[in-house]
Amino acid sequence: MLELYHYEPSANSMKPMLCLKEKGLEFVSHYVDLHSFEQHSPEFVKVNPNGQVPALIHDGAIITESTVINEYLDDVFPQVSLRPRDPVARAHMRIWSKFVDEYFCPALSMHGWNVLIPGIVERLKKGEFDQLLERIPLKEQRDKWKTAATHSFTEEQLADSKRKVGVSIERMEKILAKSRWLAGEEYSLADVNTFSMVVPVPRFFPEFLNEKVAPRTMDWVRRMNERPAVKAALAMSRKPAPGASPATLATGTRN
Amino acid sequence: MLELYHAEPVANSMKVLLCLKEKNIPFVSHYVDLLRFEQHKPEFVRLNPNGQVPVLVHDGAIITESTVINEYLEDVFPQVRLRPENPVERAQMRVWSKFVDEYFCPALSMIGWHTMVRKVAQKLKKDELNEVLSHIPLKEQRDKWATIAGASFSEEQLADSRRKIGVSIERMEKLLQKSHWLAGPTYSLADVNSYSMVAGVPRFFPEFMKPRAAEWLEEMNARPAVKAALAMPNKVPETLRAFGD
User: Structure pTM?
Assistant: First the structure.
């Protein structure tokens, strides 16, 4: 049996959701409400000691880290293959996915947290947030929650993260000038792993992603949106907001 | 033809050197002298626009990023296997390698830059430093050089990196209490990718070492491939070395 613990079809949760849909795999969905801090609950920490979504359970084995989950799914269910057969293209798939994990995603995430977290914390009763903080297993996550809740990312940090989002889109545009998909001519996990990162960019930083400065990335987004698997994964959103797409909701433009 | 551009058998260069030695694959070695900033020279930047080692060139195809290079070598030369057959262990290998790349290695790297690379940076005259900086392609790397040439990292940053090294060894110890190697019962890229990170810990942070981690390191040191990789050229002066002879 395949079970996925995930949040909205955005950010890192979207990566395995989209991969599962592309592969046409049935799975039991466990929605973890990050707005209610369910990812830090004792029940969930038993699944992932880091208290982070997504987490995959396959016949009892627990797999964490969205990028690794997607390689695992391709190792175990290779019928619909999402890794290029050419080893050089496969290496490009991994280099790009690593760049998304280490550079693009953290930069975008800081802005998402900066906008979203204060609103979530404001709804809590006095003292409740401190109790919730104590449950967060990773020090790095605890620090991030504290910083975001008090709007304490510095102007310098936010500006640098913004710059990095711009660099990421530029790098993407360069790759897409040479090939149809991010790891070559074949659609691959490089594309699957990137979709949810690119979707919120026009809302946050329209200057980085528009027809004029990044036409190939815009075209890539259109091609992604047409895919039945992308539509199916987006349809799994639990919190439809009037006028807001799931991706914008999860990155915090709705409050 | 297989060619590797690499520095000393330490840090990320060592990951690939060790993988090639474990697999017994002959390769042409191109030594890149980081202390002479060869990694930022135009000839090298043509290979890797990021100006970083190691870089693998295989029949003309350029592969960067040590963790990715090792998976590539496994895809192309599977005769000696360094990825577990069991997909769950294989995932564990990747989760751990990712942790090394994102958490353990950056923490070690900050301390290494502060205590060793800094000695090199501080010897540079102002115009020499500016000349060096002007050739570094990545802003993040440029900033790092400027930082160590100047006031270096803050006490708070250094203390946090030391803490992270401790956390990394603890996490390693937990895994090694459950299985012989880092991704399970089989030796894998998880071990290959960790060796050069752990090797310097007993000397620089003896307080963090743990019994199983120490046993693992001893077993690694006895491997012929580790010895062969450590025997690769090392032009770094003794005072700037983290481990090895």
Answer: 0.94
